[in-house]
Structure formats: C-alpha cells, structure tokens
Design goal:
This protein is of the alpha/beta class and about 400 residues long. It has two domains: about 180 residues, Rossmann fold, CATH 3.40.50; about 190 residues, N-(1-d-carboxylethyl)-l-norvaline Dehydrogenase, domain 2. Helix content is about 50%, strand content about 10%. An eight-stranded mixed sheet has the order 3-2-1-4-5-6-7-8, sandwiched between helices. Strand 7, helix 6 and strand 8 form a beta-alpha-beta unit. Helix 8 packs antiparallel against helix 13, helix 13 crosses helix 15 and helix 16 packs across helix 17. It is globular, with a radius of gyration of 22 Å. It starts with 6 loop residues before the first strand and ends in a 5-residue tail after the last helix.
Length: about 400
C-alpha cells in the first residue's frame, strides 16, 4: 500500500468523522461520504471547530490544522471513491446495510483497493460475502474518540488475503495508532473480553452485595481501573453497551457467560441511557460526575477479585481459542479500554491456581455455567505455567 494513498470514509457520524481526521492528519487526501444529505459537509464544518480548539491548546499549529481540513473533501456518491486505495466504512451496525454498501464499492473501486469495516460486533466474513473479491475485505475497528484512542483492531475475515492485513497494520502504525491483529470472532478482543466488567458488576449489584457507587469506587481504588463499570456504561450509553452485549451473546449461540442483564435492559426501556440523556445509573442533572461512596476494604477486595477473575478467565479463554496473541491481548485491553495492566500479565501476578480457585468457588456457590473456568486456566494452574 502506498504511503499516501487516497482514503475514503463512509459515514460522517462521530466515528467516521474521527477516522477522516486521523487519516487527513497523517497526510492523506480523504473523501467523506454519508447517505444523509449535507451530513458530510456538516462534519467537515464541525471538524474545523475542532481544529481551532487544537490550535488554541497548542496541540497543532495553524498550518497543520489548515492542511488537515484542506485534505478532507465531502463527496455525494460512493462512485466518487473510485481512485481510493483504502475505503473505511463506519455506518450503522446493520449487516444487510453494510453488505449493500460493500457490494456497491466492490464494483467501483480498483482491483487492488482495500475495503475495511469499522464494525465492532459484526462478522467481517459475513460482510465480505457481498463482494466478488472478499480477499480484500478486512476489519479496522477504531475506538471512540478515534483521534485520541490509540488502539485499532485489525480483523482479517475467513477469506481475507495476507497482504491487506499486513498492509493495514503498517498503515495504522504510520497513522500513530497501535494495531493488534485478532481472529474474526464475536466482539473481537476488547468487546469480548470486557463483557464481565459490566456483567459481573451488575450481578453483584443485583444480589445486593454492594451499591453501584460502592462497586465503582472499589474497582477504581482497589482495582486501579480508571472508571467504574456503572459510570463507564453511562458514558458509553446504556443502549450501546446493551446492544453490544446482546450481539456478543447471540453470536456465541446464547453462551451463559455473555447473558445480558435485565437491570441494563430496564435502563434502556426507561430511556435512562446515561450522560447523553442526563440520567442512567446515575442522575447527571445536578452533578457532572457521580459522587464516590466508600466501601469497607475487605468487601472492596472481594468485589474486585470476583470481577477480575471473570475478566481474566475471558482473556485466557480467548487466548486458548487463538483469538489473538498474548501480547496483543494485553495491548488491546490497556490501549483500547485503559485497563491498568494487561489481564494475562495480571493473571501471572497471583498465578493461574489462585484465579481458578476463585472461579471454582463461584461455580460451586451458584451452580451456573457462566463461572466455568477456561481449559487453559486449568492447564496453567496444574503446571504452574505463565501466560506472559
């Protein structure tokens, strides 16, 4: 792939506009398309205001900001992207809609152009099936906000050739991103491995072991996480988080480990979607941040250990099923969701036997398959092996 190929971005929402900004700041000419009339033009205007703020803060000089804006051009049709060497789709998470877009792109782009999807939950293989050249279709999953978050999950589908994966990893590095390569499985790395952070925390709340603010406080202070699960769900949007949970659960054929929560469903049904609606698990009408509620140290450690055991088990099982390398797994969680350390490295600190014991105790107590330990965790506990 040429270092300064023309890049197309489909979808002028927050994510698409952010990806366009990243590509333009890296020196690429960018075409931005959206099916909604005037949306691409409006996104460029909003980006102009963003550039002004970056200049005011000293993050960019005026020439860099102006150059970035000059390299982004709205376009009115997908056919206008015929000269693009890479097109990144960032539209609604609807498989049939994405397939229609990719089928159209397949006919109007050059044979050596790469088609990428920013999907966070749909199979790249399924999207690629709409194309006559599925070998050039790949996943490039950016994290929001794209200009700030370093991680990009590079996801080859079943039919993706080796070339596009290697080329895209190198290109993401050139854009200042941290690429990790992962298998085309539900949730990829981050949205799969992170599920217990929300699900098990909600379960602890539902059982009355601790309140939401207490759980958040415990995971931030005793666990070292930047944000607690309930305030993080409010930031992401409860509708978005619940949709991803549902998607992963269905994609894994209703595996109990990923079962959605009725508590979160009720939040969505009530319209309490988090910060964007002014109310979610917390009320944002009077304060911008939830007030911490301290929890007794021993209880805090129990909460953290239970959530962490589930997270570690999920990371270990993803490693067992060769979703990604151990290094990429840990990199994804630290760079994609700002975990204080990689889960596999974290597992090694106490040893596999310790975390196996926590899970076996939970499984014995509840009798639920959601707590089943990964075969690899059992193996490492038996041998005393390390993950990193």
């Amino acid at each position: 792939m040429e270092p300064k190929i023309k890049v197309g971005v489909i979808g002028a929402g927050t994510m698409g506009a952010g990806i366009a900004q990243v590509a333009a700041q890296a020196g690429h000419a960018v075409l931005l398309f959206d099916a909604r009339p005037e949306a691409a033009g409006a996104a460029v205007k909003n980006l102009s205001a963003t550039m002004d703020k970056l200049v005011a803060k000293g993050k960019l000089d005026r020439a860099q900001a102006d150059g970035t804006l000059q390299r982004i051009s709205p376009c009115a049709a997908l056919a206008a992207m015929k000269d693009c060497g890479l097109v990144i789709e960032a539209i609604v998470e609807d498989l049939e809609v994405k397939k229609r877009v990719f089928a159209e792109l397949d006919h109007c782009l050059a044979a050596d152009a790469i088609l990428a999807s920013n999907t966070s939950s749909l199979a790249i293989t399924a999207i690629a099936a709409a194309c006559s050249k599925p070998e050039r279709v790949i996943g490039l999953h950016f994290f929001n906000p794209a200009p700030l978050m370093p991680l990009v999950e590079v996801v080859p589908g079943m039919m993706t050739a080796n070339g596009p994966a290697a080329q895209c990893s190198l290109l993401m590095q050139a854009w200042g991103k941290v690429p990790v390569t992962c298998k085309d499985t539900p949730g990829f790395i981050v949205n799969r491995v992170a599920r217990p952070y929300y699900g098990e925390s909600i379960r602890i709340f539902e059982e009355g072991i601790a309140g939401m603010a207490q759980i958040d406080h415990a995971l931030k202070t005793a666990g070292g996480f930047r944000m607690g699960p309930f305030e993080l769900m409010d930031l992401i949007g409860n509708d978005v988080n619940f949709a991803v949970t549902n998607s992963v659960w269905r994609a894994f054929f209703h595996d109990p480990r990923y079962t959605p929560s009725l508590t979160q469903q009720r939040q969505v049904e009530s319209g309490h979607l988090g910060r964007k609606t002014g109310r979610g698990y917390y009320d944002y009408g009077t304060a911008s941040t939830p007030q911490p509620v301290e929890v007794e140290e021993q209880l805090a450690m129990c909460i953290v250990e239970r959530v962490l055991a589930m997270l570690i088990n999920e990371a270990v099982d993803a490693l067992f099923l060769r979703v990604a390398s151990a290094a990429d797994m840990d990199l994804a969680m630290t760079k994609g969701v700002n975990y204080p350390k990689g889960l596999l490295a974290w597992a090694d600190e106490r040893g596999a036997a310790h975390w196996l014991g926590v899970l076996e105790n939970l499984q014995a107590e509840y009798g639920e398959d959601r707590y089943r330990p990964s075969p690899l965790l059992r193996r490492m506990a038996r041998t005393g092996g390390r993950f990193r």
